Amino acid sequence: MRKIPYLLITALITLLLSGCSLEPPSWAKTGGKKDLNHVKLGLSMSTLNNPFFVYLKDMVVQEADKQGFEVIVVDAQNDPAKQNNDVDDLLQKGVNALLINPTDSSAISAAVQNANAIGIPVITIDRSADKGEVASLIASDNVGGGKMAAQYIIDSLGEGAVVAELEGIPGTSAARERGEGFHSLADSKLNVVVKQAAAFDRTKGLNVMENLLQANPNIQAVFAQNDEMALGAVEAVASSGKNIVVIGFDGSADALRAIKEGKLSATIAQQFDLIGQKAVQTAADILRGKPVEKYVPVAIKLVTKDNQ
């Protein structure tokens, strides 16, 4: 009989022990309902270096305060590996439910599955997770918003207009869905000559747009998949001296101000307050044992200078 090396046995024991380190709370083990007077929510944000997500975080905390819930907030800083570690830390701290705004919809799947393994419900906000059991996704209609952006450009410039697209972080569901909605109309009605990722970041949006304008001097319009990139694009357009339609996505305070000042053409506005409120309310329903919808859509709207 072959003997198993001592070091291998030790490694296997360590692995098994580490895999059992996340214990479900007593209410989850027994199938009981959580005492809603002592609820602890874990909120993992993709980044707090974006005004949209800062406001979304504030709305979650505000609604949690109304419900009498404690919220532990962590910032992944747009790092998928850090976010997975953050979520594991939240589980170790004994949160009763997880609210996750994924940095990467695929990478977050491991953390979601860790929560599933110990019976902690997961709600995703604004972006989905590719794998694992998510109790509910609270998000705007990103596909519809992308299509709305394409229609705005058509209405403003007519069919065949030369367009550039600034894409977000490729691994996020929001980037995929906004792009999908945009191209569902733009591919047949507009001339999208170039698209490039700028990571939902204002500075990157500025730098990418400067390069795109040099390579494609005939650009007439830009669809940026979020307001931060749109505001960066606006700076690049202003420096070029060109008259280019720029539309963003989010409805952030900075974007609305830029629209009012005539710098940004339009934005597809999300209702941050409702997203945050519905996320906490959904968590409360789950902990009460009530059924919840797998997808809770939140309405969006086109905002221009004329309808602010």
TrEMBL record:
GO cellular component: a single term: cell envelope
Domain annotation Periplasmic binding protein: ranges: 42-290
Superkingdom per UniProt: Bacteria
Gene3D superfamilies to which the protein is assigned, alphabetical: 3.40.50.2300
Main location (coarse class): other
Swiss-Prot/TrEMBL keywords: Signal
CDD domains (alphabetical): PBP1_ribose_binding
GO molecular function: carbohydrate binding
InterPro entries per UniProt: Peripla_BP_I, SBP_2_dom
Subcellular location: Cell envelope
Family: Belongs to the bacterial solute-binding protein 2 family.
Name of the protein in its database record: Periplasmic binding s and sugar binding domain of LacI family protein
Organism ancestry: Bacteria, Bacillati, Bacillota, Bacilli, Bacillales
